[in-house]
Amino acid sequence: MTSLSIMGVGKVGAEVAYLSTVTQIADTINIYDSVPSLLTAQKLDLLHTGIDINLNTDPEMLTESDIIVFSAGMPRTPDIKTRADLLESNLPVAREFCRMIKNYDGIVITITNPMDANNYFIQKESGIKREKCIGFGGQLDLARLKYFLSKRGYDTKGAWVMGEHGEHQVPVFSGMKEEVPENIRNEILLEMRGASMPVIKGKGGTVFGPAYNVFSLIKAIINDENKLLPCSCVLRGEYNTEGCSICVPVRVGRNGISEIIECHLDSWEEEKFSCAASHLKDLCRRV
Hints:
Blueprint: E1 3-7, H1 11-23, E2 28-32, H2 36-47, E3 54-56, E4 67-70, H3 87-100, E5 107-110, H4 115-126, E6 133-135, H5 138-151, E7 160-163, E8 169-172, H6 182-193, H7 197-203, H8 208-222, E9 227-236, E10 242-253, E11 256-260, H9 267-285
Parallel strand pairs: 1-2, 1-4, 2-3, 4-5, 5-6
Antiparallel strand pairs: 7-8, 9-10, 10-11
């Protein structure tokens, strides 16, 4: 028996709830939102699928869940330049979330931006083991990286992403069979930084890409896939980094993160990762 809670059922949270419902990935789904009218509407919309599912809207059930997806808070809009600019708005939401999950021993998936800083804060504030506090964003960044590589005719096998889910994301090219020259790397990095904005401007926010990849992460946990994924987690010396949550290669299964993989980076990637870690340490010091 697996129970899944989703805290915050706006665009992405609601789509994750929908995917989880139609695939029946969990035996029980619990959704919660601070806006009662939205919560009621999302519950009814899910029930109107006609799918036989145990669906609840009880905040008290959060701590009874095997997995909680934290997707509450203010989303990014065209007026918000970077995800990091959301820290002051969304940190109080993360603090309230930690109050609601006191003594929780399950797995938290952090989506709310700035994701890395919020994931660091939730792990620190709640006391959840770092292996069970997983920041989502790297899978989406990797999907975008592969899209930009394939547009240029590259075989995307071996491509990876690390760093911040934001301006300081780090595309990793050194694992690919074909060499990607520095000018192309810089072009792709620039495109990745701006990848979400056309979607945000056109439809008000990214939905399908994040939701599908969050669902894939949930599935990897529930099915104990021991899957290699780019996720944000709190480092304690890995990659010579501590004091922040940052995206690195990890193996994910039923108990959360089972292993942090320390892979080789070339000089271009190492410099970018060092900048990302420095930026996130500064951001995490503010929480």
